[in-house]
Amino acid sequence: MASAAAAPKPRSTTSKTSPTRKHSPRVGVEGKEGREGRERHAPVQCDVHKDAVVCHEAKIMGVGGIKIGQGTAVHPACTINAKVGPIVIGRFNIIEEQVEITNTSEEPLVIGDYNIFEVGAKVVGNSTIGDANLFECRSQLGPNAKVGDGCTFSVGAMVPPGEQLPDEIVVVGPPGLRHVEIGAKDAHIQAATKHIEVLRETLPRCHHLRRGAKSS
Q1: Residue 73 carries which DSSP code?
Q2: Which segments within 30-150 are labelled E, that is strand?
Q3: Most exposed: 47, 50, 73, 173, by fewest CB within 10 Å?
Q4: Ranges of H-type helices in the chain
Q5: 0.70 exceeded by pTM
Q6: How many CA atoms lie less than 13 Å away from 17 in the CB half-sphere?
Q7: Cis bond before residue 204 (omega within 30° of 0)
Q8: What value, to the nearest 5°, has the Cα angle with vertex 97 and ends 146 and 77?
Q9: What pLDDT score does 196 carry?
Q10: Cα torsion at 120, 125, 128, 134 (round to 10°)?
């Protein structure tokens, strides 16, 4: 009678088993440090007036400190960065989407009242901006500039660093032609006031707001 067939030998998995992957402790440490670094670079010393309308999605950051005054409306997707020195924004200003306001100087960047910054406008450095100025789309103001009251920067206009503009000057650019527009300050104040009344109703319906309190 034929003998029973030998039982098959169990397959060895020693040579084919992948070594257990160990998570490097360095990765965990770096992740923690990365989170702590992001926390250190979170918005600091941001003082928002209780009557300001500041969308939470706006990128408000920097170690220099930021102050946003009464009635000012800050849209989402804009950037206010006190990268080095402080930024002081007055009352009843309008800062629209994709606007970039960055202070790269130790000296303060000061913005007065009733200014309108339209989509894509840029302000860089320790400039001083008066009241009731209109920065139209993609206009740019260079560092250490000084702007009076009631000025208008047309679409794409560029003002070089250190420029000083008197009241109610219109900059058309490029190429940067200039003329005076009498009564522009009053017209800009009226426009900003009406626009802010609308924004105070519409922005809170669509966006979370940054609370009017200091954060550190």
Answers
A1: E
A2: 46-48, 53-54, 59-61, 66-68, 73-74, 79-81, 87-89, 94-95, 100-102, 109-111, 116-117, 122-124, 128-129, 134-135, 140-141, 146-147
A3: 50
A4: 25-40, 184-206
A5: yes
A6: 6
A7: no
A8: 115
A9: 94
A10: -10
Distance in angstroms (rounded) separating the CA atoms of residues 109 and 77: 20
pLDDT of residue 109: 97
> Which pairs with CB-CB distance under 8 Å and at least 24 residues apart come from 137-141?
139/171, 139/173
pLDDT at 115: 98
Per-residue buried b or exposed e for 36-45, using 16+ beta carbons within 10 Å of the residue's own CB? eeeeeeebbe
User: Nearest 5°: phi and psi at 77?
Assistant: 65, 20
Low-confidence ranges of the chain (pLDDT < 50): 1-5, 13-19, 22-30, 32-33, 35-37, 39-40, 43, 213-216
Place of tokens 């740019």: 140
Stated length of the chain: 216
Structure token pair of residue 123: 């302000």
Six token digits for residue 78: 């804009």
pLDDT at 211: 67
* 96 CB burial (10 A radius; 0-12, 13-18, 19+): buried
